[in-house]
Structures
1.
Amino acid sequence: MYNFFSPSRHAKRKRKKVSRYFKSLLLILLVGILALAGCQNILPGVKKDKVIHLTLWQGVNPPPNRDVLQKLVDKFNRSHPDIQVESLYIGQQDQQTPKILAAVVGNAPPDLLWYNPTIAGQLVELGAILPLDEMLDKSPIKAEIDPTLYTSMKYNGKIWSVPFATNNVGIFYRPSLFKAAGITELPRTWQEFRQVAKKLTRDTNGDGQTDQYGMFLPLGKGEFTVFTWLPFMWSGGSELVSADSQNAAAVNLQDNQGAIAALQFWRDLIKDGSAILSAPERGYETDDFLAGKVAMQLNGPWILGEFQANGVDFDVFPIPVRQKPATVIGGENLFFFKTTPKRERAAFEFVEYALSEEFQTELALGTGYLPVNLKSRQSSKYQEFVQKIPQIKVFLDQAKYGRSRPIFPGYNRISDSVGRAIESVLLGKSLPTDSLKATQQRLDLIYK
């Protein structure tokens, strides 16, 4: 989504730049959310005027995962009668963005926001959220956070969010289809992967038509496509921006050899006839995989519960390598909106609970997300869980190669532009070099 606000002006001046129509739309969304927030109950025996009510906006999906979160929130509320947290589902992230902006414009933000880290720079520039360095420095929980996640927490030298849950992306596959195609070894390189995808592409009923494809690729310019493509660019040896840059103007796509190679690799799978494209913006859907129409698909541990419930055979292996191993770190962080010191302290008390070994272990066992707490990952309870679901170990092992997406202001526009380039190449409308050159030129007009 485009940034409707000037990143360097005071909030009141920013509001003047929003069209009257957009302001009305945001107001409608805000009123709907506030109406939901007014339904919270008071625990028996607690005086109403002594309770601090906090709101947590989230888009946890699928619904069973929201149930896990709600049980954990209820547990906090029972043990903290003076702090009551209302967890509100406000839609998936493309639906959340207008509501978040409405809350900022209307000076009625939630206390806590569950969202992917890429929104951080935009919220910082709007002056809407709190830096957390001081509170974290005083908390023992800081030492328990997986250090690889700090990249997603920091912008311009300060910490602006804390991780709620984490994951990364691997290649899910159907072992039965591998066996039927005579494949005995998992692909480790791009070249091996391309060969395996060809072998898995078959006419299984002899009617002369392909009815099983080797690979399922996401089509569309949305964030899921970019999210799952970035590891291939990194494995190809290139960066979206230089490692120490947090500036949209530093994005480098033209003559980016890793990006060119990654686009060409995905296009080659299409040209080989061994990959099928998803419906637009539906790259995360698993129907074809579950039905055996595709043998491999990019996805993450959040899907493990669904696969187990369907009773199909499945396994997972790391993303194949061109120059170096790579995956993309997913998951969501918690952001603190500016409210009052009293509410902010109460919100941090909930966040310490959400980062704790107990919370993280229960969340991981119930959803498939990887714990952000190191003690949780090492706990006997979680290790027993990993033994029962060995696919999780693949994600835990490759987490050390995980990279975070940029969190500077304007990332949404960068992602949208990269997504358009990927889509153009996959549909055969342009070559990787031409598509990336045109994308760079558009971005240069905006940021340079």
Note: The mean pLDDT is 88.
2.
Amino acid sequence: MSTARPPQGFTPTGTIATPADRRRVVFATVVGTTVEWYDFFIYASAAGLVFGQLFFAPLGANSVLISFATVGVSFLFRPLGAFLAGHFGDKYGRKVVLMWTLILMGAATALIGILPTYEAIGVAAPILLVLLRILQGLSAGGEWGGAVLMAVEHAPKQRRGAFGASPQIGVPLGLLLASGVMAVMAMIAPGDAFLEWGWRVPFLLSVVLILVGWYVRRRVEESPVFTELAERKEKARMPIVQLFRKHLLLVIIAAFVFAGNNAVGYMTTGGYIQNYSTNPEGPLALERGPVLWAVAGSAVTWLLSTFAAGVLSDRIGRRTTYIIGWILQLIGVFTLFPLVNTGNIWLLFLGLAILTIGLGFTYGPQAALYSELFPASIRFSGVSISYAIGAILGGAFAPTIATALVQATGTTVSVTWYLAGMTLLGLVATLLLRDRSGIPLGPEREAEQEQSPIYGLSKA
């Protein structure tokens, strides 16, 4: 067991001494999560645009449905990634886990870029594609929790929402980068050229991005909370066992909070809108390039609202910010398809922009909210596993469900009600939680952190 002492300048509450240190942590979490989610969203975008034709063509009309299902398969392995990352992150530190998740994600993404299609190697092609997607899911399951804790546990308590928004904005930045690169390749290699080789370039670019992310992350100090846990020799021996024995209900409620956001977010990050609006046999049949640029533009509004919500949560609390967000998200859900179905690219962008404002407000405060829910010794496990379960309940098969609903009902109204239901689920879960903004995060206050944040349960 490590007996390393905290680096000079750290305090037991998990703050760091200089603005330069804070900037380094924020920059590293933004760059690292952007690279990770670029890789993740490149797959989702390609699933909506090309994988149905290239890897699942023999399935005919069901090829797109199965292609979207492979997006969801990775979510089934997120809990395993979260279990492993939570265990090792609570025992050996946040930083080492982040380095390895970055490598795993990058390697899987680059290999997809050189993967032969069904026409070349038959059924082996979709099998290999799914296996590589599973590796992406394992990486994503461990990435988020580590990035969140590196940001929040380094932050002054009055700015945890703002610091916690740094890994959160890596998601819209990853979507912006993924959609932008795909749009550029649609211009460079239009039509059949995009199907032949253009889609591969964004996957191969991952190699360069991973090297950048590795360089940036390795220069950041370990989380001060974990360093103090090591100093006190208070690291949990079996953190996952303790988590489920003491905090199972909290994990489920926290997962529902994220599920309400994630199901709606995967209308774009999961590739559904991209496929629905560009499908040549669909009701809109829009050009691929303009749709990708509209998605990229909506990623900007998502980024801005995510950061704004993180900052606002430091002023009015996580819970109140979330409630505002659920209302805004519900408005976005009911305006999305009426605007998309006009077939006007500018109105499509407007629909996505309105939606992403609510998405940002139900995503920006999440890092701080989750970090303040769980005790220090099992915090990595708590935030990672809650996030992974929420992703399965929410985004895992949202594009697949949306596609099946439209096929069954012939209208996107059914999708709207599905997304509205998930939004209300998130709202109810939020209302069940007490606001713990500013609670001490250090291991010296673990008894206080163990008190239940769930309304109706004893706080002791």
Note: Confidence is low (pLDDT under 50) at residues 1-17.
